[in-house]
Design goal:
With about 525 residues, this protein is α+β, with helices and mostly antiparallel strands. It has twelve helices and 27 strands.
């Protein structure tokens, strides 16, 4: 049996105003068809109108009026008529939405897009009843240009020519905000996007815009090198993170087929993918940061993701300040050692799908410091975590060591007691990007270094941690001791260096003042 979607919409009689569903299980040959990628919208009446359900499946197999479908779906039928395609696949119509096989069909849905001869993207339509073949948004600017006219008798005259330019706006279409449509587009062999201002064609080798049909943009990436494939994955995650899903816990489900494609391309196993991150590239991928310049709609439900994955963020993500890493990946610069990384799957049969939690155990340089609410302040060396050292940084306890000597470039100091945040405390060259829209309140944090810049550019990169709730993961205390921690941000640390020396020689590495420690992150 051929691997078809179970149902297709037969539009061969659509000119008579009727269409019908057909079953493909008994097909003996490949049936060329188009697939529609579109936004359903939030209107319940329209959503129910387009759905195939147990109660209307037989009527739709017998044939039903085309007018029963919302405008966006009818426009897709019209495109198929022009292209002389007899069959169309639409998820709401060709999957029985309350059927017994709904779960398995939803998991395999992306195959319907990858097997389609063409994917029609209703990019400009924000809901199913808006349509995408209406009048386009067309803005023009006009210019009057001076020009010299020469007549047959040799005389000349200065005149003007009116030039009209079509202005295209660089903006996201409604479909580019919906989380599920990224994998639909990514799976397409051929894709035509009906945008607000123009048509766009995409296939695996090229992309063409209607506004400049002569321009051909290659769509290649370095699939041969390991780093090239990792770059492709990071770029895909960045694009996806700008999109929204109705349900927060669908963030990984809607990215599932993209992850499967990468795993297959790189010949990795499903165990190499944990909660949205690739384990062979894990240390770099832990260095995601939130893009506060392009906020998306905040969700009321925080979801059940581990804090160390980008899926836990309520903002789009970037691999920020990582130009040095992306341009010249040097694995020797990573000081963090990953001991264990696992995610708890919601459905064991879906290793690329949603998770209910996870744990990450690393050995790394991870000194404590006090975040005052505006800057990071060094804790005295004689201060250690104790019952008296509360999360807000108050309540220090004196240890046997009452003084410490800094390295080159930092004066020796003696301390009996020091209130962190007081004028005597040292402000650290710490540049955070928080995982939330607003900075966190005053509290003790752990600065876990992942990549060191020592001997290179003088910058270190890592993640900011705080104590997590004990009740959230009591087993962490048994396996690791102090902990567990959760991530609250990303940081760049600019070490003191000797000016004019390259590679820049670090005069004092605050992050390396103590030995590496084992850290458990949930």
């Amino acid at each position: 049996m051929l691997n078809f979607p179970r149902y297709l919409l037969d539009i061969s009689t659509s000119r008579d105003g009727r269409v019908r569903l057909i079953e493909t299980r008994d097909a003996s040959k490949v049936i060329p068809y188009a697939a529609l990628s579109y936004c359903w919208g939030d209107d319940r009446k329209t959503t129910r109108r387009q759905k195939t359900l147990k109660q209307n499946i037989q009527d739709r197999l017998n044939g039903f009026p085309l007018e029963d479908l919302p405008s966006t779906l009818r426009d897709a039928v019209q495109v198929c008529q022009i292209l002389r395609l007899k069959y169309l696949w639409i998820d709401a119509v060709c999957i029985v939405q309350d059927g017994d096989d709904l779960g398995s069909e939803m998991r395999e849905m992306v195959q319907a897009y990858s097997a389609a001869s063409l994917v029609i993207s209703a990019a400009r339509a924000s809901h199913a009843d808006e349509g995408f073949l209406g009048r386009r948004i067309q803005d023009y600017e006009q210019y009057l240009l001076p020009i010299c006219f020469q007549f047959p008798d040799g005389s000349t005259e200065i005149g003007q020519v009116r030039v009209t330019q079509h202005i295209l706006h660089d903006k996201l279409e409604p479909i580019d905000i919906r989380g599920w449509t990224l994998q639909e587009h990514d799976a397409a062999v051929r894709l035509v996007r009906f945008e607000s201002e123009e048509l766009v064609w995409r296939c695996p080798t090229t992309s063409k815009n209607e506004s400049d049909i002569r321009k051909c943009t290659p769509r290649f990436f370095d699939a041969q090198s390991k780093d090239g494939r990792f770059r492709y994955f990071l770029d895909l995650v960045e694009k996806y993170s700008r999109r929204e899903t109705t349900k927060v816990n669908d963030r990984l489900n809607a990215f599932e087929s993209c992850a499967m494609k990468i795993i297959e391309m790189m010949k990795l196993s499903s165990d190499d993918y944990q909660a949205g991150l690739l384990k062979p590239d894990l240390r770099r991928q832990l260095l995601w940061s939130c893009d506060h310049d392009h906020p998306r709609r905040l969700s009321e439900d925080p979801g059940s993701f581990p804090s160390w994955t980008w899926a836990s963020a309520d903002l789009p993500v970037l691999w920020n300040n990582q130009g040095e890493i992306l341009q010249d990946l040097d694995w020797g610069d990573f000081t963090c050692e990953v001991e264990n990384c696992t995610a708890d799957l919601l459905d064991p049969d879906r290793p690329f799908g949603s998770v209910t939690g996870g744990c990450l155990t690393v050995r790394a340089y991870a000194p404590d410091a006090l975040w005052t609410g505006t800057c990071l302040v060094e804790l005295p060396k004689f201060v250690r975590r104790s019952p008296r050292l509360r999360q807000d940084g108050s309540g220090y306890q004196k240890t046997k060591t009452s003084s410490f000597s800094s390295r080159e470039g930092v004066k020796s100091r003696s301390h009996s007691r020091l209130q962190a945040g007081s004028p005597g405390a040292q402000t650290l060259p710490f540049h955070p990007i928080w995982d939330t829209p607003q900075p966190p309140p005053r509290q003790v944090v752990k600065c876990l270094e992942i990549r060191s810049g020592e001997g290179n550019i003088g910058h270190a990169y890592g993640i900011v941690l705080v104590f997590a709730d004990k009740a959230a993961s009591p087993e962490a205390y048994q396996s690791v001791g102090e902990g567990p921690f959760k991530r609250i941000g990303y940081f760049k640390f600019i070490h003191p260096t000797k000016d004019g020396v390259f590679p820049r020689k670090i005069t004092y590495n605050w992050l390396h003042q103590a030995k590496k420690e084992r850290v458990y992150i949930i």
